[in-house]
Specification:
The structure holds 2 protein chains of 2 kinds.
Chain A: H1 2-23, E1 33-43, E2 55-58, E3 61-69, E4 73-84, E5 87-99, E6 106-114, H2 135-141, E7 146-155, E8 161-169, E9 187-197, E10 202-213, H3 222-227, E11 242-252, E12 262-273, E13 285-297, E14 300-315, E15 318-336, E16 339-352, E17 361-371
Antiparallel strand pairs in A: 1-2, 1-3, 1-17, 3-4, 4-5, 5-6, 6-7, 7-8, 8-9, 9-10, 10-11, 11-12, 12-13, 13-14, 14-15, 15-16, 16-17
Chain B: H1 2-19, E1 22-25, H2 28-37, E2 42-45, H3 60-67, E3 71-74, H4 84-91, E4 100-101, H5 136-153, H6 158-182, E5 190-193, H7 199-205, E6 208-212, H8 223-235, E7 241-244, H9 250-258, E8 265-268, H10 280-298
Parallel strand pairs in B: 1-2, 1-3, 3-4, 5-6, 5-7, 7-8
Helix pairs in contact in B: 3-4, 5-6
Classes of the chains: A mainly beta, B alpha/beta.
Chain lengths: 378, 301
């Protein structure tokens, strides 16, 4: 049923896209843009909580379409395929419509789309600087969190960039197995971002976000369920009622020429409380990620990332400790804007309560993009 | 007394906010043109002459500028495709949903209808070369269209804008005539340049670009490509090797060095300087012509 709705939505979007292109209502009205991204990665050893299998694997590859729907709306569709644990998975990552003509800097979006929380969640995965998302995203969001819901956002008429948004989602991806059914709205988020330039070469952005998750994680032992053939799922492995996230980004490019040289620094941290009905105030999940990437030549980048995760795994009425550190080093060759060849080394350390940590893993990733693939966010 | 001052200050603030029109411009040439036609407008410029307009970070500061604008003026023809759509999406400003694009109002050179950007073709603009601002005749056509768009945005200034447009056109036509007379020695000379930044300027002045330092549009010069160019250029040395102010001049210097001392490297500003007064555009053309004529005089054909 749901698939049929999505297919119908796709058909409608495609049809209106064709109409928009044929009509070319206003001279400056841009038509629909289509693109494709192919991601292939070879991994020497799979990472604990990682999304990459051992050996050659088709990573997150997608077909995208974006464009106007009449004078007041814009729509986007992202269909993706990837292999995970030997199986080919396909689905719609995004199917949404958005207003473009509300007054006072307001925008309303409906459909399936990535949540506004954190820094990386709304970025295209193929623009990531590392082969896998940080532990924070893998443990708390199953890689990235896209969901069905609504978003209302407002950009303030200030000289400093300031935006505030509220979202209501089904929230099913936040919890592997739920102990309660809270109705249609499973999660409510709000987020705010503030940013600006220091001068021609330096710019910054700060973000604060919060998730109120109305679904409670099941309290039974995870292992028992695994034996029942419960699938690996792309849901969060660690969850709770309240999530706070902060993110900070700083970018430097001499004279604003990011093509020649650029340094990108990013930090994200999250804390989840209210793990379940047995949790005390001290039971919480925490994770952070610090990354630095330097483009030292128009087609070369090097980067390092340090990840840390500490959690409390529910086990009946009590909790087990969970700890993992991860360090990554990468070098990427980008002969053009449409191709990336990346070599990454990753080491996982200090593992407590984590299955099969990889002390060292090498990954070779190749990303190829065709057609329009949208402008990148800061 | 104090409350009077407060009322006056408030009145000025509110009045000022209601009067001033804010214009977001993608490149300094459109800022200069906007200031010429509507000097009282508040103008934001997203890029400067030292910056590659194809590759700009969709920075928070730019989103805030677009959010506050009543009108956006850009080049179009996909020049800003890598960043402007993201700014529009984040700004959520209904007034700048439709951007005034200069490329919609002139005929572009080198269109490549049906060209699809494959990952190996470089940055291909199917619409044609977007760097139309280096042709003063095309600039005049854009001025005409921009004046109409500004008058639409500020109806009570319609006659003033029209007056300034007429004045600018008269002055500009006289300047074009003078430039064309001065530039006669350039006609038929050959030039090596990086990217198609000055394609319109060459066409206007009758110069021929015999080599492009980029192996593919938008890609940085590679040693192998420069080596291949060298054979052809040795047989027919160009008048100069030209790079824009935002490009790394080292590949051009290397190439000129290999061709001997007679071929100079010219670093031409790809756009006028920002906020350089009412004659910024004319001064920029003067500067480019001076540099080219000097190079032509130093290396006789």
């Amino acid at each position: 049923m749901k698939n049929r709705i999505i297919l119908t939505a796709m058909g409608l979007l495609a049809a209106s896209g064709a109409l928009a292109q044929a009509g070319k209502a206003a001279p400056t009205e841009k038509g629909w843009e289509f693109g494709a991204v192919l991601d292939t990665t070879a991994t020497s050893r799979p990472l604990a909580m990682g999304s990459r299998d051992k050996g050659l694997q088709l990573g997150h590859s997608d077909l995208t379409a974006h464009g106007p729907l009449g004078a007041h709306l814009r729509a986007g569709v992202v269909a993706s395929v990837a292999t995970h644990e030997g199986k080919l998975e396909k689905g719609f990552e995004e199917v949404w419509i958005e207003t473009t003509s509300l007054p006072a800097g307001l925008q309303l979006r409906a459909g399936r789309f990535p949540s506004q929380v954190g820094y990386l969640n709304t970025q295209h995965p193929h623009a990531d600087d590392f082969t896998d998302r940080p532990l924070l995203y893998r443990a708390f969001f199953g890689g990235h969190w896209n969901d069905e819901g609504l978003r209302l956002s407002w950009t303030a008429p200030t000289s400093l960039y300031w935006t505030v948004g509220v979202e209501a989602f089904r929230g099913r991806k936040l919890v592997t197995e739920t102990a309660n059914t809270p109705g249609h709205i499973g999660a409510i988020t709000w987020a705010t971002k503030l940013g600006g330039d220091l001068n021609r070469s330096h710019s910054w952005q700060l973000g604060l976000s919060h998730i109120n998750n109305r679904r409670e994680a099941a309290v039974e032992d995870e292992a028992e369920h695994a034996e029942e053939g419960h699938d690996h799922s792309h849901s969060a492995q660690l969850s709770g009622r309240k999530t706070w996230m902060i993110d900070a980004t700083w970018k430097w490019a001499p004279n604003g020429n990011n093509r020649d040289q650029q340094v990108r620094l990013g930090f994200e941290a999250a804390r989840i409380t209210g793990l379940n009905r047995f949790a005390s105030g001290r039971d919480r999940h925490e994770a952070n990620a610090l990354s630095a990437v330097w483009r030292f030549h128009p087609s070369w980048e090097v980067g390092a990332r340090s990840d840390w995760l500490r959690g409390r795994m529910p086990h009946g009425e009590h909790f087990h400790n969970l700890l993992l550190r991860e360090h990554s080093l990468m070098v990427a060759w980008k002969p053009s804007h449409q191709q990336t060849l990346r070599l990454q080394w990753t080491g996982q350390r200090d593992a407590v309560g984590v299955d099969a940590p990889a002390r060292r893993s090498l990954q070779l990733q190749y990303i190829l993009a065709f057609g329009a693939h949208g402008a990148h966010a800061f | 007394m104090r409350s009077d001052a407060l009322v006056l200050a408030l009145g000025l603030l509110v009045g000022g906010a209601a009067q001033a029109v804010t214009v977001f411009t993608c490149e300094p040439e459109w800022a200069a043109l906007t200031r010429t036609l509507l000097p009282e407008a508040r103008v934001h410029v997203a890029t400067h002459a030292g910056q590659d307009p194809h590759h700009v970070e969709a920075r928070p500061a730019l989103i805030a500028q677009l959010r506050n604008a009543d009108l956006a003026v850009c080049t179009g023809a996909s020049l800003e495709a890598g960043w402007l759509p993201m700014l529009q999406q984040r700004a959520g400003n209904a007034r700048t949903r439709e951007v005034f694009e200069a490329a919609d109002h002139v005929e572009l050179i080198d269109p490549q209808p049906g060209a699809i950007g494959t990952p190996w073709a470089g940055d291909v603009h199917a619409e044609g070369n977007p760097h139309l601002h280096t042709d003063p005749h095309k600039l005049l056509e854009v001025t005409h269209a921009l004046a109409a768009r500004l008058a639409q945005a500020v109806p009570d200034q319609r006659s003033a804008i029209e007056q300034r447009r007429v004045g600018f056109e008269r002055q500009w036509k006289a300047r074009i005539a003078a430039w064309e007379t001065r530039a006669r020695p350039l006609r038929g000379r050959s030039i090596a340049a990086q990217h198609s930044t000055f394609g319109y300027l060459w066409r206007w002045l009758g110069l021929r670009q015999t080599a492009d330092l980029e192996p593919r549009p938008g890609m940085a010069p590679t040693p192998g490509h420069l080596q291949r160019l060298l054979d052809g250029l040795r047989r027919q040395p160009p008048m100069a090797v030209v790079v824009s102010s935002y490009q790394d001049p080292r590949p051009a210097r290397w190439l000129a060095g290999q061709l001997g001392d007679r071929v100079p490297v010219l670093v031409l500003p790809s756009s006028p300087p920002d906020d350089a007064g009412p004659d910024a555009l004319a001064a920029w053309f003067d500067q480019m012509l001076d540099a080219l004529l000097k190079a032509a005089a130093s290396s006789p054909p």
